[in-house]
C-alpha cells in the first residue's frame, strides 16, 4: 500500500516547510526504508532555489539518506528488515546502456533518475528526497551501511563521501602521490580524510589560514592560504592530482601550473559561470582538466566499506527539521563545520 508520511519540502524558492507526502506502494523489487538521518548538501539549496534548471514545487530534497529497512519485496535478496542502509543521489537508471553495464550508473546515457526532482519510471511521479520519514527504492540502488558506521555520520557519505572518493579512486590516489584539495568545506574535508587514508600526501588550498589548525588535525600534510603572495610560484609542478570542490569561479590556470606532467585537475564543484582556461596552460605539461560526478553503486558500496574499515567519518552538526531554513543560510555563508545532518525523528 502507498503510505502518507511527514516531510519537509520547498514550497517556493524562498521557503521550506513541513508537509505530508505520499510514497508509492513497494513492488517486488523494492526496499522500504524508515529514514533516520538526512544530510544537507549544497545541491539541495541550488535545487530549492531553482538555480539549476526548473524545480517542481512542492519538492522534498535530500540525497544523503541513512535509515533502517522497514520492509522488502518478495524478490529482494540483498537486504532484510532491520538492516542499516543508505540512498544517495540516484534511485534508478536504464540499466541497459554501456555506462550502466559498466557499473557507472551515474553516467546513464538515457538519463539517471535522481533522488529528487526527476521522473520516477515506476509510477510517473516526481521523485521526492530524503527530508522525510520514509522512502521506497529499488534494491539495485540501495546501499548497505556497515555496522561500524553510525547512521548519522553515514548520511553525508552518500554524496559528499562518494563525490571525493570516486575521483581519488579513478585517478589512483595513494602512496607516492601528491594530492591537492581546493576548498575545505563539506566536500573538501572529506577529500582530505579519504586521500590521507589512501596513503597520499595531502595539501589543502584555502583562501585563508582560518581553518589551518583543523585541516592539519583532520589529516592534511600541508595547508596553503592562496591569498598570500607568491604561493603558486612556490608550488610549480608539485602535484599529481588536484580536486576542486568549490562552487565559485576561481583562476584555475594557477592550479594547473601546480600539476606535474600528465597531472589532472578534477572539477567536482559546480560554479555558476563557465570555466575560463587557456589551452596553453594544458599543453605545457600535458595536464588535463576533468569532471567527476558521484560514483556508481558498486563504487559507492566500496567507499562505504573503506570508510567503515578505516573509521573515516564526516564532521557533522545534527539539527532538528525546524532548523533547515537557518541551516541553508549558514551553508551559504560557510558557517558550518562541516555538514548539517537532519534528525528525521524531529519531523
Task: Characterize the structure shown.
The protein has 347 residues and is an alpha/beta fold. The mean pLDDT is 96. It has 11 helices and 17 strands. The strands form 4 sheets. Strands 3, 4, 5, 8, 9, 16 and 17 form a 7-stranded mixed sheet that branches. Helix 8 (252-256) links the parallel strand 13 and strand 14 (259-267). It is globular. The protein has helices spanning 42-48, 98-101, 151-154, 160-170, 186-197, 212-217, 231-234, 252-256, 279-283, 297-310, 324-332; strands at 3-12, 15-23, 30-39, 65-72, 84-87, 90-92, 113-114, 134-138, 143-144, 178-182, 201-206, 222-225, 239-244, 259-267, 288-291, 316-320, 339-343. Helix 4 crosses helix 5 and helix 4 crosses helix 10 (297-310). It comes from Lentinula lateritia. Residues 11-342 form the Enoyl reductase (ER) domain. Belongs to the zinc-containing alcohol dehydrogenase family. Pfam families: ADH_N, ADH_zinc_N. Keywords: Metal-binding, Oxidoreductase, Zinc.
Could you give a short description of this structure?
With 347 residues, the chain is α/β, with parallel strands linked by helices. It is built from eleven helices and 17 strands.
Amino acid at each position: 500500500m502507498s503510505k502518507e508520511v511527514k516531510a519537509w519540502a520547498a514550497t517556493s524558492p524562498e521557503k521550506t516547510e513541513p508537509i505530508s507526502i505520499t510514497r508509492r506502494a513497494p513492488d517486488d523489487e523494492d526496499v522500504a526504508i524508515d529514514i533516520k538521518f538526512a544530510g544537507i548538501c549544497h545541491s539541495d539549496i541550488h535545487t530549492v532555489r531553482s538555480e539549476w534548471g526548473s524545480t517542481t514545487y512542492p519538492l522534498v530534497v535530500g540525497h544523503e539518506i541513512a535509515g533502517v529497512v522497514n520492509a522488502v519485496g518478495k524478490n529482494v535478496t540483498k537486504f532484510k528488515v532491520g538492516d542499516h542502509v543508505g540512498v544517495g543521489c540516484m534511485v534508478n537508471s536504464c540499466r541497459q546502456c554501456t555506462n550502466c553495464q559498466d557499473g557507472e550508473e551515474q553516467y546513464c546515457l538515457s538519463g539517471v533518475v535522481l533522488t529528487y526532482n526527476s521522473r520516477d519510471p515506476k509510477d510517473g511521479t516526481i521523485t521526492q528526497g530524503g527530508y522525510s520519514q520514509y522512502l521506497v527504492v529499488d534494491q539495485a540502488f540501495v546501499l548497505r551501511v556497515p555496522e561500524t558506521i553510525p547512521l548519522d555520520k553515514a548520511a553525508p557519505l552518500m554524496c559528499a563521501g562518494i563525490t571525493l572518493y570516486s575521483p581519488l579512486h579513478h585517478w589512483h590516489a595513494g602512496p607516492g602521490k601528491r594530492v591537492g584539495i581546493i576548498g575545505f568545506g563539506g566536500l573538501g574535508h572529506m577529500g582530505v580524510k579519504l586521500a590521507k587514508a589512501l596513503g597520499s600526501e595531502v595539501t589543502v588550498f584555502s583562501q585563508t589560514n582560518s581553518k589551518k589548525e583543523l585541516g592539519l588535525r583532520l589529516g592534511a600534510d600541508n595547508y596553503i592560504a592562496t591569498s598570500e603572495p607568491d604561493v603558486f610560484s612556490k608550488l610549480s609542478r608539485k602535484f599529481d592530482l588536484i580536486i576542486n570542490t568549490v562552487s565559485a569561479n576561481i583562476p584555475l590556470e594557477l592550479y594547473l601550473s601546480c600539476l606535474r606532467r600528465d597531472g589532472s585537475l578534477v572539477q567536482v564543484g559546480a560554479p555558476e559561470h563557465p570555466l575560463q582556461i587557456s589551452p596553453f596552460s594544458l599543453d605545457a605539461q600535458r595536464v588535463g582538466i576533468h569532471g567527476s560526478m558521484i560514483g556508481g553503486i558498486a563504487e559507492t558500496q566500496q567507499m562505504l566499506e573503506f570508510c567503515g574499515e578505516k573509521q573515516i567519518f564526516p564532521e557533522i552538526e545534527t539539527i532538528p527539521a525546524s532548523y533547515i531554513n537557518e541551516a541553508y543560510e549558514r551553508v551559504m555563508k560557510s558557517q558550518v563545520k562541516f555538514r548539517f545532518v537532519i534528525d528525521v525523528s524531529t519531523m
